[in-house]
Amino acid sequence: QVQLVESGGGLVQPGGSLRLSCAASGFTFNNDIMSWYRQPPRKEREFVASITSTGGSTHYRDSVKGRFTISRDNAKNTVFLQMNSLNAEDTAVYYCYNLLRNHWGQGTQVTVSS
Q: How far apart are CA 46 and CA 38, in angstroms?
């Protein structure tokens, strides 16, 4: 069955960096667009970034452009989210998402705090 397992979250100081990973299994990974979403405390889940099957095209929410980079390694069935210059507004649970199969990972907590 489809599985998406996120890792890499944690506590980081403002201005710091984290790299999230999402390991996928149970489907042909290199056929599917993959996305990252996040849910800040007491807010709705929101889109962060997406990447096409080949990695040739990416999209970002405005507030993370220039700071976050989504990438993928199709040989390892993994999608990444490199997050730089983190600030308190980036605090959230981050989820990996496959739209085609409507499947979410379990999420990983990112907390930006001094």
A: 5
